[in-house]
Design brief:
There is one protein chain. By secondary structure, the chain is mainly α. It is built from 16 helices and no strands. α4 crosses α13. The protein is globular and about 50 Å long.
């Protein structure tokens, strides 16, 4: 019989920072990303199978994107007024139903382009409400001291599921057809919604009654514009993300077809970018730079490398290397951005501020993508690509002129994770942190968020 002193210490099954909410959110994200990235491929092939062409593919994609932009701000305000997990579950239910109907129409062989547009628009609407709520919920689910590591591991899981979902989805589309892949996506949304229904919001402070939806939007706007580091980086990424969208959707495939021998080298380059995001997340799970925003912004410069590689153009190996480095860099920025948002934005305003972040970062994408063709005709493809790379470098250099970006530092966190007791309690926990509170005598820092909307 062992005495208390000789009882072996049991190693915890998961890290201290990985609380119940964090695990549920990560598991649900893995499930949805596996389904969604396969469904994106399936949607394209469903359009082709119905007799549509590339223009119809663009219409269906636009139908998903427009409501996402239109409803993002409202989604952020709603997510800060009602429990975020309810918004997430409701969005998952909407996505599940729309994808199930889409799958049924495709399997029956009766899907028409207008029906696909309506159903993908419903998916985009669901995402507009889901994204700000999910980001706010994730940031409220981790303790401050380990926030960077938690966000890095979360993004590692997210990107791994995205890569796996795209690969699996492509194979299944070829093997069983797009309808079944869309049905799998519907099931994935149902499973993820079930997981998110069990999120514990007991540790999140109850929202004080507000002055209505528009008053909440105004409050979120004042929070957004009152922080120079926030609006300047969002403005920067509005340009960067828009240019990346044009490069990846228009110029990349054209250069691959004309100079590199076809679609395969471009597919390998995109895969290398995905592997780079995993490597970057792995790096940030171990590295905690003190000057978060400064380090993150420096890592935006390499994002221009793929545009420059296509402008030369480099051979397939050079392009693949450029895409890999770009993937690593965007993840360093992404984790840094999320850590900064977690550190600087009051919990009760996270979703609204996140909605302005998402909105600003994606606002120019339709315009830049639409102008890619005319720019190539007017200036030539190589000149247009060099111009894109130069503009990314320019707006990133301008952001470094903002004092907050250069001087904000990582601070000991006081926010407690939702649904659990904080490991370190501090006076003022849960209160708003004014921007000036981030400045310490030593050099500053902050962190980033993701996809190529900061998520890669």
């Amino acid at each position: 019989m062992n005495s208390p002193a000789t009882v072996p210490h049991r190693t915890p099954r998961r890290p201290e920072w990985a609380g119940r909410n964090y695990v549920l959110l990560t598991a649900a994200t893995i499930v949805t990303n596996l389904g969604t990235h396969g469904a994106l491929i399936a949607t394209t092939w469903a359009v082709f199978d119905s007799g549509g062409d590339a223009g119809d593919v663009g219409l269906v994609a636009m139908a998903r994107f427009l409501p996402l932009v239109l409803f993002l701000l409202i989604g952020g305000a709603v997510a800060d007024r009602v429990p975020r997990h309810r918004v997430m579950v409701a969005a998952n239910v909407l996505n599940c139903v729309s994808q199930a109907v889409f799958a049924a129409l495709v399997l029956a062989g009766s899907a028409q382009i207008w029906q696909m547009m309506v159903l993908t628009a419903l998916c985009g609407t669901g995402q507009a409400f889901f994204n700000p709520a999910a980001e706010g919920m994730l940031m409220a689910s981790v303790t401050g001291e380990q926030a960077s590591r938690a966000f890095a591991v979360y993004r590692m899981a997210m990107h791994g599921a995205s890569i796996g979902g795209a690969a699996l989805g492509g194979a299944l589309v070829a093997f069983v057809g797009p309808g079944w892949v869309l049905l799998i996506d519907a099931v994935a949304f149902a499973v993820a919604g079930g997981l998110r229904a069990f999120l514990d919001v007991g540790g999140i402070p109850e929202r004080a009654p507000g002055g209505g939806l528009f008053a909440d939007l105004r409050e979120g706007w004042h929070e957004f514009v009152g922080r120079p580091w926030l609006w300047s980086i969002v403005a920067q990424f509005s340009v960067v993300v828009g240019l990346i969208g044009a490069v990846e959707s228009v110029y990349g495939p054209l250069v691959a077809k004309a100079e590199l021998g076809g679609a395969r080298p471009w597919g390998v380059a995109l895969a290398a970018y995905g592997v780079g995001t995993l490597a970057g997340a792995f790096l940030m799970a171990r590295w905690k730079p003190r000057r978060l925003l400064f380090v993150g912004t420096l890592c935006v410069f390499p994002i221009a490398l793929p545009s420059a590689a296509l402008a030369v153009p480099l051979d397939a190996a050079g392009l693949t290397a450029a895409m890999f480095v770009s993937g690593v860099a965007i993840e360093v920025f992404g984790v840094s951005w999320m850590t900064t948002m977690h550190q600087e934005i009051p919990e009760e305003k996270l979703s609204r501020v996140s909605a302005y972040d998402w909105f600003g970062s994606t606002a120019l994408m339709p315009l830049t993508t639409a102008l890619a063709g005319p720019a190539e005709s007017a200036f030539g493809r190589s000149t247009a690509l060099w111009g894109a790379a130069g503009l990314m470098v320019l707006v990133t250099a301008l952001v470094l002129l903002v004092p907050d970006v250069r001087h904000m530092t990582r601070r000991p966190q006081v926010k407690a994770a939702a649904g659990r007791e904080p490991s370190v309690a501090a006076a003022g926990a849960g209160s708003a942190n004014p921007p000036t509170a981030a400045f310490l005598p030593a050099p500053p820092s902050a962190d980033a968020e993701g996809a190529v909307r900061r998520d890669g």
